[in-house]
Amino acid sequence: MIRCLALAALAALVLASAGCERASRFGLKDEAIITERVPDPVYEELFPYYAELCAVSQWRSHSKGTGGVPGHAVMYLKGACKDETAPWPRLRRCRRAAADPHDVEHGAGISVNRWLRNVNWLAFPGRDLFYAGNVRPGERLTQERADATVRDAVAAGVLHGVELHDYPAAEGEHDPDNFLLHHALATDFALQYGRSVFCARMPLAEGMLVEAMEFLNALNDEYAGGEADYQWSGLHDNCVHTLRNALAAASVWSPTSVRVIKLRQLFNLAIPANEFVNLARLGAEGPIDDYEEIHRDPAQREALLEFDWLPTRHGALVKTLPVHPDNEIFDTTFRLFVLQSPLRRGQTQAAVRLASDRRFVELEANLRHFAGVYERVLRERDEDGFGIASLRGDPYRRARRRYYEYVERQRAEVERMLARISGS
Protein backbone atom coordinates (compact mmCIF):
# COMPACT_ATOMS: atom_id res chain seq x y z
CA MET A 1 0.00 0.00 0.00
CA ILE A 2 2.75 2.43 0.96
CA ARG A 3 4.67 1.60 -2.20
CA CYS A 4 1.57 2.27 -4.32
CA LEU A 5 1.03 5.63 -2.63
CA ALA A 6 4.66 6.56 -3.18
CA LEU A 7 4.52 5.63 -6.86
CA ALA A 8 1.28 7.54 -7.30
CA ALA A 9 2.77 10.63 -5.67
CA LEU A 10 5.86 10.44 -7.84
CA ALA A 11 3.75 10.04 -10.98
CA ALA A 12 1.69 13.09 -10.01
CA LEU A 13 4.86 15.11 -9.50
CA VAL A 14 6.18 14.12 -12.91
CA LEU A 15 2.85 14.95 -14.58
CA ALA A 16 2.77 18.31 -12.82
CA SER A 17 6.10 19.17 -14.40
CA ALA A 18 4.96 18.44 -17.95
CA GLY A 19 4.50 21.31 -20.32
CA CYS A 20 6.98 23.64 -18.62
CA GLU A 21 9.30 23.96 -21.55
CA ARG A 22 8.71 27.07 -23.57
CA ALA A 23 8.20 30.63 -22.50
CA SER A 24 5.12 31.03 -24.69
CA ARG A 25 3.33 28.30 -22.76
CA PHE A 26 3.49 30.44 -19.62
CA GLY A 27 2.35 33.61 -21.31
CA LEU A 28 5.80 35.16 -21.04
CA LYS A 29 5.12 38.17 -23.24
CA ASP A 30 7.48 40.48 -21.34
CA GLU A 31 10.96 40.32 -22.85
CA ALA A 32 12.34 41.14 -19.40
CA ILE A 33 11.68 37.54 -18.42
CA ILE A 34 13.77 36.15 -21.25
CA THR A 35 16.56 38.71 -21.56
CA GLU A 36 19.16 39.65 -18.99
CA ARG A 37 17.84 41.44 -15.91
CA VAL A 38 20.43 42.27 -13.25
CA PRO A 39 20.36 44.86 -10.44
CA ASP A 40 21.71 48.34 -11.10
CA PRO A 41 25.53 48.77 -10.81
CA VAL A 42 25.10 50.99 -7.74
CA TYR A 43 23.63 47.95 -5.98
CA GLU A 44 27.16 46.60 -5.48
CA GLU A 45 28.16 49.74 -3.58
CA LEU A 46 25.10 49.71 -1.35
CA PHE A 47 25.02 46.00 -0.40
CA PRO A 48 28.39 44.52 0.61
CA TYR A 49 27.09 40.98 1.25
CA TYR A 50 24.41 38.93 -0.45
CA ALA A 51 23.43 35.41 -1.45
CA GLU A 52 21.96 34.43 -4.81
CA LEU A 53 20.07 31.16 -4.91
CA CYS A 54 19.67 30.24 -8.56
CA ALA A 55 17.66 27.71 -10.50
CA VAL A 56 19.08 26.85 -13.90
CA SER A 57 17.05 25.19 -16.62
CA GLN A 58 17.65 21.94 -18.41
CA TRP A 59 20.46 22.09 -20.98
CA ARG A 60 20.28 20.71 -24.50
CA SER A 61 23.38 20.23 -26.59
CA HIS A 62 23.72 19.69 -30.29
CA SER A 63 26.30 16.95 -29.61
CA LYS A 64 25.85 15.91 -25.94
CA GLY A 65 22.13 15.26 -25.74
CA THR A 66 19.87 16.58 -22.97
CA GLY A 67 20.24 17.17 -19.24
CA GLY A 68 17.78 16.39 -16.46
CA VAL A 69 14.29 17.91 -16.56
CA PRO A 70 14.36 19.57 -13.09
CA GLY A 71 17.50 21.52 -13.98
CA HIS A 72 19.99 22.36 -11.25
CA ALA A 73 20.46 24.73 -8.30
CA VAL A 74 23.54 26.77 -7.45
CA MET A 75 24.40 29.64 -5.12
CA TYR A 76 26.64 32.67 -5.31
CA LEU A 77 27.92 34.38 -2.14
CA LYS A 78 29.21 37.94 -2.36
CA GLY A 79 31.87 38.47 0.29
CA ALA A 80 32.89 34.80 0.46
CA CYS A 81 35.83 33.71 -1.71
CA LYS A 82 37.41 30.39 -2.61
CA ASP A 83 40.24 29.58 -0.20
CA GLU A 84 43.13 28.77 -2.51
CA THR A 85 45.30 27.58 0.42
CA ALA A 86 42.85 24.93 1.66
CA PRO A 87 43.49 21.20 1.01
CA TRP A 88 39.96 20.82 -0.43
CA PRO A 89 37.16 23.24 -1.42
CA ARG A 90 36.60 25.75 1.40
CA LEU A 91 35.57 29.40 1.65
CA ARG A 92 37.31 32.38 3.23
CA ARG A 93 36.30 35.98 3.66
CA CYS A 94 37.16 38.03 0.57
CA ARG A 95 40.21 40.23 1.04
CA ARG A 96 38.34 43.39 0.07
CA ALA A 97 34.79 44.63 -0.27
CA ALA A 98 34.64 44.52 -4.06
CA ALA A 99 32.05 46.72 -5.74
CA ASP A 100 33.23 45.54 -9.15
CA PRO A 101 31.39 42.30 -10.02
CA HIS A 102 34.26 41.35 -12.35
CA ASP A 103 36.74 41.35 -9.46
CA VAL A 104 37.75 37.79 -8.53
CA GLU A 105 37.60 38.91 -4.88
CA HIS A 106 33.94 39.76 -5.30
CA GLY A 107 32.66 36.33 -4.22
CA ALA A 108 32.35 32.66 -5.10
CA GLY A 109 29.89 30.32 -6.76
CA ILE A 110 28.86 27.11 -4.97
CA SER A 111 27.59 23.98 -6.69
CA VAL A 112 26.92 20.36 -5.70
CA ASN A 113 27.84 17.70 -8.25
CA ARG A 114 26.53 14.15 -8.06
CA TRP A 115 29.96 12.65 -8.83
CA LEU A 116 31.76 14.23 -5.86
CA ARG A 117 33.02 11.68 -3.34
CA ASN A 118 35.13 13.30 -0.61
CA VAL A 119 33.38 16.69 -0.63
CA ASN A 120 29.81 17.91 -0.98
CA TRP A 121 30.32 21.04 -3.10
CA LEU A 122 32.75 22.88 -5.37
CA ALA A 123 33.72 26.56 -5.23
CA PHE A 124 34.30 28.73 -8.31
CA PRO A 125 36.10 32.07 -7.86
CA GLY A 126 34.33 35.17 -9.20
CA ARG A 127 31.10 35.87 -11.05
CA ASP A 128 32.64 35.81 -14.53
CA LEU A 129 33.78 32.19 -14.39
CA PHE A 130 30.68 31.05 -12.51
CA TYR A 131 27.94 32.63 -14.63
CA ALA A 132 29.30 33.69 -18.04
CA GLY A 133 32.21 31.27 -18.24
CA ASN A 134 34.56 34.16 -19.04
CA VAL A 135 32.81 34.70 -22.37
CA ARG A 136 32.59 38.39 -23.25
CA PRO A 137 29.39 39.97 -24.63
CA GLY A 138 29.31 39.47 -28.39
CA GLU A 139 31.89 36.68 -28.32
CA ARG A 140 30.96 33.43 -30.06
CA LEU A 141 30.84 30.35 -27.84
CA THR A 142 32.87 27.69 -29.62
CA GLN A 143 34.38 24.41 -28.48
CA GLU A 144 37.76 26.15 -28.34
CA ARG A 145 36.32 28.79 -26.01
CA ALA A 146 34.79 26.07 -23.81
CA ASP A 147 38.11 24.22 -23.65
CA ALA A 148 39.84 27.43 -22.60
CA THR A 149 37.26 28.01 -19.87
CA VAL A 150 37.85 24.50 -18.56
CA ARG A 151 41.57 25.26 -18.40
CA ASP A 152 40.75 28.46 -16.47
CA ALA A 153 38.81 26.39 -13.93
CA VAL A 154 41.64 23.87 -13.58
CA ALA A 155 44.14 26.70 -13.10
CA ALA A 156 41.86 28.16 -10.40
CA GLY A 157 42.14 24.86 -8.52
CA VAL A 158 38.43 24.09 -8.41
CA LEU A 159 39.21 20.35 -8.22
CA HIS A 160 42.19 20.67 -5.90
CA GLY A 161 41.92 17.95 -3.26
CA VAL A 162 38.67 16.62 -4.78
CA GLU A 163 38.07 12.89 -5.23
CA LEU A 164 35.32 11.65 -7.52
CA HIS A 165 33.10 8.63 -7.81
CA ASP A 166 33.56 6.59 -10.99
CA TYR A 167 31.82 8.86 -13.47
CA PRO A 168 30.94 8.05 -17.11
CA ALA A 169 33.92 8.74 -19.35
CA ALA A 170 35.81 7.21 -22.21
CA GLU A 171 38.57 4.80 -21.20
CA GLY A 172 41.72 6.62 -20.09
CA GLU A 173 40.00 10.01 -19.84
CA HIS A 174 39.45 10.30 -16.08
CA ASP A 175 41.27 13.60 -15.63
CA PRO A 176 40.23 17.09 -14.41
CA ASP A 177 39.77 18.52 -17.90
CA ASN A 178 37.53 15.65 -18.95
CA PHE A 179 35.37 15.82 -15.83
CA LEU A 180 34.93 19.59 -15.94
CA LEU A 181 34.18 19.59 -19.67
CA HIS A 182 31.63 16.76 -19.66
CA HIS A 183 30.13 16.85 -16.15
CA ALA A 184 30.57 20.36 -14.75
CA LEU A 185 30.60 22.86 -17.63
CA ALA A 186 27.19 24.61 -17.91
CA THR A 187 26.12 22.81 -14.72
CA ASP A 188 28.49 23.87 -11.93
CA PHE A 189 30.09 26.83 -13.70
CA ALA A 190 29.83 28.70 -17.01
CA LEU A 191 26.11 28.36 -16.41
CA GLN A 192 25.04 30.58 -19.31
CA TYR A 193 26.76 28.32 -21.80
CA GLY A 194 23.67 26.13 -21.92
CA ARG A 195 21.06 27.22 -19.37
CA SER A 196 18.66 30.01 -18.51
CA VAL A 197 19.46 31.27 -15.01
CA PHE A 198 16.94 32.57 -12.45
CA CYS A 199 18.29 33.92 -9.18
CA ALA A 200 16.75 35.27 -6.00
CA ARG A 201 19.23 37.76 -4.55
CA MET A 202 19.05 38.27 -0.79
CA PRO A 203 21.20 40.88 1.03
CA LEU A 204 22.81 39.45 4.17
CA ALA A 205 24.24 40.84 7.36
CA GLU A 206 27.96 40.19 7.78
CA GLY A 207 27.39 37.71 10.61
CA MET A 208 24.94 35.78 8.49
CA LEU A 209 27.48 35.40 5.69
CA VAL A 210 29.95 34.00 8.23
CA GLU A 211 27.38 31.46 9.45
CA ALA A 212 26.66 30.27 5.90
CA MET A 213 30.38 29.94 5.18
CA GLU A 214 31.01 27.99 8.37
CA PHE A 215 28.19 25.59 7.54
CA LEU A 216 29.53 24.93 4.05
CA ASN A 217 33.12 24.54 5.24
CA ALA A 218 32.06 22.13 7.99
CA LEU A 219 30.12 20.06 5.45
CA ASN A 220 33.14 19.59 3.18
CA ASP A 221 35.45 19.06 6.16
CA GLU A 222 33.17 16.28 7.39
CA TYR A 223 33.44 14.32 4.16
CA ALA A 224 37.09 15.09 3.43
CA GLY A 225 38.24 14.18 6.93
CA GLY A 226 35.72 11.45 7.74
CA GLU A 227 35.18 7.84 6.86
CA ALA A 228 31.92 8.29 4.93
CA ASP A 229 31.80 9.33 1.28
CA TYR A 230 29.30 11.82 -0.06
CA GLN A 231 26.48 9.98 -1.82
CA TRP A 232 24.29 12.25 -3.91
CA SER A 233 20.58 11.43 -3.82
CA GLY A 234 17.88 13.07 -5.89
CA LEU A 235 15.38 12.53 -3.07
CA HIS A 236 17.41 12.90 0.10
CA ASP A 237 20.61 14.89 -0.49
CA ASN A 238 20.80 16.82 -3.74
CA CYS A 239 22.00 20.27 -4.78
CA VAL A 240 19.03 22.04 -3.19
CA HIS A 241 19.44 20.53 0.28
CA THR A 242 22.97 21.89 0.67
CA LEU A 243 22.10 25.40 -0.49
CA ARG A 244 18.87 25.70 1.48
CA ASN A 245 20.58 24.49 4.64
CA ALA A 246 23.45 26.93 4.19
CA LEU A 247 20.91 29.76 4.16
CA ALA A 248 19.13 28.16 7.10
CA ALA A 249 22.40 28.26 9.05
CA ALA A 250 22.32 32.02 8.42
CA SER A 251 18.75 32.21 9.80
CA VAL A 252 17.20 33.06 6.42
CA TRP A 253 14.63 30.26 6.76
CA SER A 254 14.17 26.80 8.25
CA PRO A 255 16.43 23.87 7.25
CA THR A 256 15.33 20.78 5.37
CA SER A 257 16.29 17.31 6.53
CA VAL A 258 18.41 14.92 4.47
CA ARG A 259 17.30 11.95 6.61
CA VAL A 260 13.53 11.84 6.00
CA ILE A 261 11.97 8.47 5.16
CA LYS A 262 11.27 7.97 1.45
CA LEU A 263 7.48 8.27 1.56
CA ARG A 264 7.58 11.60 3.41
CA GLN A 265 10.36 12.85 1.16
CA LEU A 266 8.20 12.34 -1.93
CA PHE A 267 5.85 15.01 -0.60
CA ASN A 268 8.72 17.33 0.35
CA LEU A 269 10.98 17.23 -2.68
CA ALA A 270 13.80 19.75 -2.92
CA ILE A 271 13.38 21.11 -6.47
CA PRO A 272 15.70 23.83 -7.86
CA ALA A 273 13.12 26.13 -9.45
CA ASN A 274 10.71 25.82 -6.54
CA GLU A 275 13.40 26.82 -4.06
CA PHE A 276 14.32 29.85 -6.16
CA VAL A 277 10.66 30.92 -6.15
CA ASN A 278 10.38 30.30 -2.40
CA LEU A 279 13.30 32.63 -1.65
CA ALA A 280 12.13 35.24 -4.16
CA ARG A 281 8.65 35.30 -2.61
CA LEU A 282 10.05 35.46 0.91
CA GLY A 283 12.20 38.46 -0.02
CA ALA A 284 9.41 40.24 -1.87
CA GLU A 285 6.18 39.31 -0.12
CA GLY A 286 6.90 37.89 3.32
CA PRO A 287 5.24 39.11 6.55
CA ILE A 288 7.34 42.22 7.14
CA ASP A 289 4.21 44.10 8.27
CA ASP A 290 2.93 41.37 10.61
CA TYR A 291 4.97 41.19 13.81
CA GLU A 292 2.88 38.32 15.23
CA GLU A 293 3.67 36.11 12.24
CA ILE A 294 7.36 37.06 12.37
CA HIS A 295 7.50 36.17 16.05
CA ARG A 296 5.89 32.75 15.42
CA ASP A 297 8.53 31.86 12.83
CA PRO A 298 11.65 30.58 14.67
CA ALA A 299 14.06 31.50 11.85
CA GLN A 300 12.72 35.04 11.42
CA ARG A 301 12.57 35.61 15.15
CA GLU A 302 16.20 34.51 15.51
CA ALA A 303 17.28 36.61 12.53
CA LEU A 304 15.71 39.72 14.02
CA LEU A 305 17.10 39.20 17.52
CA GLU A 306 20.52 37.88 16.52
CA PHE A 307 21.35 39.76 13.31
CA ASP A 308 18.91 42.71 13.31
CA TRP A 309 17.65 41.44 9.96
CA LEU A 310 14.49 40.14 8.32
CA PRO A 311 14.25 38.34 4.95
CA THR A 312 11.43 40.44 3.50
CA ARG A 313 13.41 43.53 2.76
CA HIS A 314 14.70 46.12 0.36
CA GLY A 315 17.41 44.83 -1.94
CA ALA A 316 15.85 41.37 -2.28
CA LEU A 317 15.59 41.13 -6.07
CA VAL A 318 15.08 38.64 -8.88
CA LYS A 319 17.81 38.29 -11.50
CA THR A 320 17.48 36.53 -14.86
CA LEU A 321 20.26 35.57 -17.25
CA PRO A 322 19.73 34.00 -20.70
CA VAL A 323 21.72 31.32 -22.45
CA HIS A 324 24.67 32.82 -24.32
CA PRO A 325 23.06 33.56 -27.71
CA ASP A 326 25.93 33.15 -30.17
CA ASN A 327 26.42 29.48 -29.40
CA GLU A 328 27.86 26.54 -31.33
CA ILE A 329 27.50 24.01 -28.51
CA PHE A 330 24.12 24.37 -26.80
CA ASP A 331 20.53 24.99 -27.85
CA THR A 332 19.66 28.55 -26.83
CA THR A 333 15.85 28.13 -26.61
CA PHE A 334 14.50 29.71 -23.43
CA ARG A 335 13.32 27.19 -20.82
CA LEU A 336 11.93 27.38 -17.32
CA PHE A 337 11.28 24.11 -15.54
CA VAL A 338 9.33 23.85 -12.30
CA LEU A 339 8.59 20.43 -10.87
CA GLN A 340 5.84 20.79 -8.28
CA SER A 341 3.34 18.61 -6.48
CA PRO A 342 -0.40 18.94 -7.18
CA LEU A 343 -0.72 20.40 -3.67
CA ARG A 344 1.66 23.28 -4.45
CA ARG A 345 0.66 24.64 -7.85
CA GLY A 346 1.36 28.16 -8.94
CA GLN A 347 5.15 28.24 -8.59
CA THR A 348 5.71 28.97 -12.27
CA GLN A 349 3.12 31.75 -12.25
CA ALA A 350 4.75 33.24 -9.16
CA ALA A 351 8.15 33.26 -10.87
CA VAL A 352 6.69 35.00 -13.92
CA ARG A 353 4.87 37.56 -11.78
CA LEU A 354 7.92 38.46 -9.67
CA ALA A 355 10.27 38.64 -12.65
CA SER A 356 7.78 40.92 -14.46
CA ASP A 357 7.35 43.39 -11.60
CA ARG A 358 9.76 46.36 -11.55
CA ARG A 359 9.60 46.45 -7.74
CA PHE A 360 11.40 43.13 -7.58
CA VAL A 361 13.90 43.44 -10.44
CA GLU A 362 14.96 47.12 -10.40
CA LEU A 363 16.72 48.62 -7.41
CA GLU A 364 15.16 52.10 -7.33
CA ALA A 365 11.62 50.76 -7.76
CA ASN A 366 12.36 48.20 -5.07
CA LEU A 367 13.62 50.84 -2.64
CA ARG A 368 10.59 53.06 -3.21
CA HIS A 369 8.28 50.09 -2.68
CA PHE A 370 9.84 49.18 0.65
CA ALA A 371 10.01 52.80 1.72
CA GLY A 372 6.22 52.73 1.45
CA VAL A 373 6.00 49.40 3.30
CA TYR A 374 8.14 50.62 6.19
CA GLU A 375 6.23 53.88 6.35
CA ARG A 376 2.92 52.04 6.52
CA VAL A 377 4.15 49.77 9.34
CA LEU A 378 5.23 52.75 11.43
CA ARG A 379 2.06 54.70 10.69
CA GLU A 380 -0.11 51.77 11.79
CA ARG A 381 1.95 51.46 14.94
CA ASP A 382 1.24 55.08 15.80
CA GLU A 383 -2.45 54.81 14.93
CA ASP A 384 -2.90 51.63 17.01
CA GLY A 385 -1.36 53.22 20.09
CA PHE A 386 1.23 50.48 20.62
CA GLY A 387 2.86 52.38 23.45
CA ILE A 388 -0.31 52.33 25.60
CA ALA A 389 -1.31 48.79 24.61
CA SER A 390 2.11 47.46 25.60
CA LEU A 391 1.60 48.75 29.14
CA ARG A 392 -1.57 46.68 29.45
CA GLY A 393 0.05 43.27 29.34
CA ASP A 394 1.62 42.77 25.89
CA PRO A 395 3.69 39.55 26.41
CA TYR A 396 6.24 40.55 23.75
CA ARG A 397 6.72 44.19 24.63
CA ARG A 398 10.53 44.30 24.36
CA ALA A 399 10.68 42.17 21.22
CA ARG A 400 7.89 44.16 19.56
CA ARG A 401 9.64 47.41 20.39
CA ARG A 402 12.82 46.03 18.85
CA TYR A 403 10.86 45.13 15.71
CA TYR A 404 9.60 48.69 15.32
CA GLU A 405 13.09 50.09 15.97
CA TYR A 406 14.35 47.77 13.24
CA VAL A 407 11.73 49.04 10.79
CA GLU A 408 12.70 52.63 11.62
CA ARG A 409 16.34 51.86 10.80
CA GLN A 410 15.36 50.18 7.54
CA ARG A 411 13.28 53.19 6.53
CA ALA A 412 16.24 55.48 7.23
CA GLU A 413 18.58 53.21 5.28
CA VAL A 414 16.25 53.19 2.27
CA GLU A 415 16.09 56.99 2.35
CA ARG A 416 19.90 57.16 2.33
CA MET A 417 20.09 54.71 -0.56
CA LEU A 418 17.54 56.64 -2.60
CA ALA A 419 19.52 59.82 -1.98
CA ARG A 420 22.67 58.02 -3.15
CA ILE A 421 20.95 56.90 -6.35
CA SER A 422 19.59 60.37 -6.95
CA GLY A 423 23.04 61.85 -6.47
CA SER A 424 24.62 59.43 -8.94
Provide an overview of this structure.
The protein has 424 residues and is of the alpha+beta class. It folds into two domains: 2-361, no CATH class; 363-424. 43% of the residues lie in helices and 11% in strands. Strand 5 and strand 6 (91-93) form a beta hairpin. Helix 5 (143-155) packs across helix 6 (176-184), helix 10 (272-285) packs across helix 13 and helix 14 (363-384) runs antiparallel to helix 16 (397-423). Mean pLDDT is 85; it is low at 1-32.
- Structural class category: alpha+beta
Strand content: 5-15%
Tell me, briefly, the overall form.
Answer: globular
Mean pLDDT rating: 85
Low-confidence spans: pLDDT under 50, at least 5 residues?
1-32
Number of strands: 10
Describe the structure concisely.
The chain has 424 residues and is α+β, with helices and mostly antiparallel strands. The chain has helices spanning 2-17, 31-34, 43-46, 127-132, 143-155, 176-184, 206-225, 239-249, 262-266, 272-285, 291-296, 298-307, 347-356, 363-384, 386-390, 397-423; strands at residues 50-56, 60-61, 65-66, 72-78, 80-82, 91-93, 107-111, 122-125, 197-203, 317-321.
